Amino acid sequence: MQPAKARKGIHRRKVLKMRIDKRKYDELRPLEIKAGVIPNANGSAMVRMGKTIAVAAVYGPREMFPKFKQKSNKAVLNTLYTMVPFSTTERVRPGRSRRSMEICKVTRQALEPAIFLEEFPKSVIDVYINIIQADAGTRTAGINAASVALADAGIPMRDLVASVAGGKIGKNFLVDLCMEEEEETEADVPVAYMPRTRQITLLQMDGDLPKEDVKEIIKLAIKSIEKIYKEQRKALEARWKKG
Amino acid sequence: MQPAKARKGIHRRKVLKMRIDKRKYDELRPLEIKAGVIPNANGSAMVRMGKTIAVAAVYGPREMFPKFKQKSNKAVLNTLYTMVPFSTTERVRPGRSRRSMEICKVTRQALEPAIFLEEFPKSVIDVYINIIQADAGTRTAGINAASVALADAGIPMRDLVASVAGGKIGKNFLVDLCMEEEEETEADVPVAYMPRTRQITLLQMDGDLPKEDVKEIIKLAIKSIEKIYKEQRKALEARWKKG
Amino acid sequence: MQPAKARKGIHRRKVLKMRIDKRKYDELRPLEIKAGVIPNANGSAMVRMGKTIAVAAVYGPREMFPKFKQKSNKAVLNTLYTMVPFSTTERVRPGRSRRSMEICKVTRQALEPAIFLEEFPKSVIDVYINIIQADAGTRTAGINAASVALADAGIPMRDLVASVAGGKIGKNFLVDLCMEEEEETEADVPVAYMPRTRQITLLQMDGDLPKEDVKEIIKLAIKSIEKIYKEQRKALEARWKKG
Amino acid sequence: MEKRVIKMIMQDQYVLDMAAEGKRVDGRKHDEFRKIEIEKNPLEKPEGSARVRIGKTDVIVGVKMEVGEPFPDKPDEGTLMVGAEFSPMASPDFEAGPPREDAVELARVVDRGIRESGAIDVKKLCIKKKEKVWIVMIDIQIMNHDGNLFDASTLGAITALLNTKIPEYDEKKDEINYEKKTKVLPVTCKPVSVTFAKIGNQIFVDPGLDEENVEGGRITVTTKDNGNICAIQKGSPVPFTLDEIEKIFDMAIEKGKELRKLV
Amino acid sequence: MEKRVIKMIMQDQYVLDMAAEGKRVDGRKHDEFRKIEIEKNPLEKPEGSARVRIGKTDVIVGVKMEVGEPFPDKPDEGTLMVGAEFSPMASPDFEAGPPREDAVELARVVDRGIRESGAIDVKKLCIKKKEKVWIVMIDIQIMNHDGNLFDASTLGAITALLNTKIPEYDEKKDEINYEKKTKVLPVTCKPVSVTFAKIGNQIFVDPGLDEENVEGGRITVTTKDNGNICAIQKGSPVPFTLDEIEKIFDMAIEKGKELRKLV
Amino acid sequence: MEKRVIKMIMQDQYVLDMAAEGKRVDGRKHDEFRKIEIEKNPLEKPEGSARVRIGKTDVIVGVKMEVGEPFPDKPDEGTLMVGAEFSPMASPDFEAGPPREDAVELARVVDRGIRESGAIDVKKLCIKKKEKVWIVMIDIQIMNHDGNLFDASTLGAITALLNTKIPEYDEKKDEINYEKKTKVLPVTCKPVSVTFAKIGNQIFVDPGLDEENVEGGRITVTTKDNGNICAIQKGSPVPFTLDEIEKIFDMAIEKGKELRKLV
């Protein structure tokens, strides 16, 4: 979900015979997930979705400072989403932007329901997400990486959260949009989901579509999320085998 | 009192037959005062002087944090003066300016002598002033609103503080300048005053005038302040009747 | 040591018959040191090296706040290096720059080994350095001033730290470069040194020279440092006589 | 301070207990908004303005028009900017300082509703291709926060836009004459947001502050005149099921029609 | 730290007790300044500079000249900018960081004195109408704070301005030659401020830090050569009566004359 | 937290005890680097990139090329900018927020090594004199901090530069085509830094984090292919003797040769 102003090509190329990168409409970009990539962190993961690369590291649970920010009945989940300066075609200036502030918030809210925060009162769990390369879908890649990093850190979770965006170009519904598609889509709908409990933890939408289409997109996204979820589990199993 | 650079027209139109908006020289702009406009606040008020609209809200007295800022023998008075972005012809960028920092300071000092701060050691009284629309005299309108908001919050006071600016255009001394007049005046002299104790709590001046003229302006301002003071009291009475 | 980009004239004038300001190659610029120039400070000093003027003030040892920054076994040394706005040809904008942040760090590290910090646990010693006029060698002048200011504050020290930069223009090795020389030199090597213990506490270098030349420059700098050291001691004696 | 916290915890429990019985603390129905009052152009300085009250929530929106350069990739389109200030005046929970996450989210969601719906005909805001276009600056000022800032702000924004007049611009002198506001801003439709709280199993429209304070779900859906959805923002850690989302879409479209009549 | 606070409280009481008897702690008369020393152009880099000491208060003012664009509403006038830095070097009470309220107030009051008096003939600082004018940048650096920074700074500013030379400017190359400073800055008059403390019922000129620390009244009045007042700033929470103000005006004009001779 | 501190203090003592016997905790020799792995151009978005691992220290460097104005005093030269981010991801000791002293120092030392060695032929980066030049922006992203960030970053920077391709630039349209990267960046030599720790009387190359945590000396020396020194940075409060410095120069040149082969 790029800032809407970047979606310059809306309606430009309605009749798309097949996807730019030859994928099927319900096919994910090449997906790679690896747990345990940052030795210093308590848990970490790298997720590559096409050209988009997200790395997540988890520190904690650790005592929260300053103390007045502690919550007496549960841990605070803190998320920091950052695009590294060379992640995009035009260099990103370091520092928080309005866009990254919003993504921090929705990312935190997408992950929170999966974590037994109540087991760690007065603590903080820090989740740092760095987008090393950005080619659409950075927030969903970040959530996928963060979810694996949390599990890698041994933090008790209800389920893994997996995430992907869906859209519609012409008459076709499609998932896991690449950058060119994100510029064309009539709507961009990032979804995060916990497959075991069948709950939606992230839902945003930019665009202009009838409700039926939006529902269709959400359902398609959820199907793809099941695939991502399997890869997340595989990555964790590979990590646990290695020890 | 606009930043002086805005007073471009000094000396441009010395011989003014009557005031731009047809007022008499010692006449205030249409004045409206209303107490109790922000339900969440402990006290609040709106003051309209011509096109200038100031809203003030008071929170407190409440315990001051961080603790090292507490004063052991009295409450700290905190004032925050802000012009909302659409208050002026050219949009105001959010954030503190040097001008607003100075106004925060003189506003605080104009109000402090009226309040029995010593009754609330270790506390803070927050006074927030938003200028919703700016057409000259924003600091005086802000002080008028803040004074009523403090009383509305039930904070014990020695007296209400009322405030207006005076000036001189050509041979005429005048009060409560509107924006066009502020650009023409040979001096801009905001005054705040406690009528009961006959004390001046704010006095600033920009301009170029002999001392006799400055004294004349101050005296004229004090006369108009008596009128504002009456309206402040009326607004509070109306509020107390309503309960 | 100006930011390298300022050394525009490298290689421009290799064959220099004598120094621009007629000094000998191993001669310092006119040097003036005065202790006790800021009445409010616990210790202070002014150092003038040619047109470069540095003033240093020391406050402390005093209890460190906030407490979590305290060190239980020694004092924290805090240095703040600031160029005043009118110190250079083009006005310096107030606020920290990357250059000044680095200088704060190397200055602190140049001074620290001289101070018995372990005598003042949980305390902070603040060293403020203002460059009143900048004409090359501001960090070395700052260290010279700070060292005297620390002694003037009565802080127990192993030795005074004295500092000067060396360089090479054409075939000549030279010390205490002025601004024109700093633009010409093939290397800029600021050195700080404790003569009694014969220890180097600051060493930086920008340039492009064989190691033999760099060593030669360091040795030359150390010789000049002995002279500065004497002047530092004289300044302190003069101060102590005055009481 | 502590008293306030205890009061809030007790109030939270009360809200939850009521919700468990399918009831709201102020007796409203699930799909019932609080009283809505809209003032059109209460101010003279901005090019357009609106004051919206939903219950005790009170928001002023001002629109300022400036002239600037277009984005390089859209050389013939005017631009839009939305800002939101959570003045500490409006709530004991707001702090002074730069906008926090919540204010940024509010501004961005209002922005997306207006931008994605194509409510402003930005092509008509081009003065000179590649060089000069109108910039529409929408600022949201929260006066009193009693819940559901999203709907109050979106309502305020679209009302202010509908009442905005463009000042005259002298291209040669590069001067805007703010005294003469003549042309109406080209607004093509009325995007309106509807916000829901999920408390326990209940979905309530237009949550009050007491309902927002309960750690429940929040979701905002912005719709257009033709019923299309143009923005969604799930804004809380509580998850939703797909069934709930579908039900919410239906309600958002229905309630949106009602709100649109008020503008 | 605590010792310093206790010492200050005791000192405050002493200042108050003395004032109750109409006396000052350092034996000065009501209208007596501390010793004033003014150094003209002590520095080489700035276009003009001054060092002013009033007792132990020590201030350096530097003037830098740059070329920039005029304000659109004054296309043929040079511009003025005043900054003040309260270096933590100058007082144990100053902190590192961006300028606080007090530094901003000081800069703005010095600015107003110079600006409102018309001391700089800004029309003569126009290089090319609408495009290039001289910018006069006055920076105040506090070296040691022992009270009455306002008068020291205003004295420093006007002295530095009177000793400022404008560098040569090559319009074609758009380059300033800071090596060649030829023309004198056009200064038309000498605005001078006089600051008063009100302690108990007493009005004292040139308050020292011990007098400023007492929570008394402070007021600064800036006057011109012809006796006109060009700036006033009441800068403390203690109120004044109209009578006191009138008396202060008289003293400000009288003492201003004396200070002006030193410049 | 406390446990971590106690562990660190005990570890420090162990490092010191070993050093007293002339040994390193991980059994390395005085002049032995940890295992170095270099990946060339692991990324597609930057014009050049490198990933360098020295033991568990892990750094990614990206080079972006932009077009901008030259500095007025060097109208025909491209410019260089180095930034370093200590992401809190990389170490429990890094904090979120603007770069602190350590990150600034790292960026500046890498910058000086490249700048002073003349590694980039900046004259060849001039597009139009006085108006347009290429800006080479090197960003260092720390992924995992286990000591000796300086050498990893300098190695990463020079590797990324050697693998950078300049995109096509259309001067008329003032547009960079990042899809077409054709010309190789003109790199003339390979500056390489070698960092030393001084622990007790021992000088160790390539300090690990456990060695850096001991309050010992640190010095970085950057050399060129021809053995010349182009940058030195003593970066710790522990002093060095002249003898030690001379020995360090010799080792820096020798080890630099080895590192240069890896690039």
Descriptive report:
The complex is a heterohexamer, with 3 copies of chain A (243 residues) and 3 copies of chain D (263 residues). Chain A is of the alpha+beta class and 243 residues long. Helices cover 28% and strands 30% of the residues of chain A. Chain A has 4 helices and 9 strands, in the order ββββαβαββαββα. In chain A, the strands form 2 sheets. In chain A, strands 1-2-3-5-4 form a 5-stranded mixed beta sheet. In chain A, strands 7-6-8-9 form a 4-stranded antiparallel beta sheet. With 263 residues, chain D is of the alpha+beta class. Chain D has a single domain, classed as Ribosomal Protein S5, domain 2. In chain D, helix 2 (101-116) packs across helix 3 (149-162). The model of chain D has no long low-confidence stretch (mean pLDDT 95). The interface between A and F is medium-sized, with 33 and 32 residues. Strand 9 (199-209) of chain A pairs antiparallel with strand 12 of chain D, so a sheet runs across the interface.
Number of strands of chain A: 9
Report the principal-axis shape of chain A.
globular
Q: Which bin fits the share of residues in helices of chain D?
A: 25-40%
Structural class determined from secondary elements of chain A = alpha+beta
CATH class label of chain A: Alpha Beta
Q: Give the largest chain-chain interface (CB within 8 Å).
A: B-E, 37 and 38 residues
Number of helices of chain D: 5
Could you give the order of strands across the largest sheet of chain A?
1-2-3-5-4
- Report the oligomer: heterohexamer
Q: Specify the CATH architecture of chain D.
A: 2-Layer Sandwich
* Total number of domains of chain A: 1
CATH superfamily name of chain A?
A: GHMP Kinase, N-terminal domain
Q: Strand content of the residues of chain D, in percent?
A: 25-35%
Q: Name the poorly predicted regions of chain A.
A: 1-15
Look at the structure and give the mean pLDDT of chain A: 92
What Rg of chain A do the Cα atoms give?
18 Å
Rounded to the nearest angstrom, the distance between the terminal CA atoms of chain A is: 36 Å
Order of helices and strands of chain A: EEEEHEHEEHEEH
CATH class of chain D: Alpha Beta
Total tally of structural domains of chain D: 1
Structural Rg of chain D:
20 Å
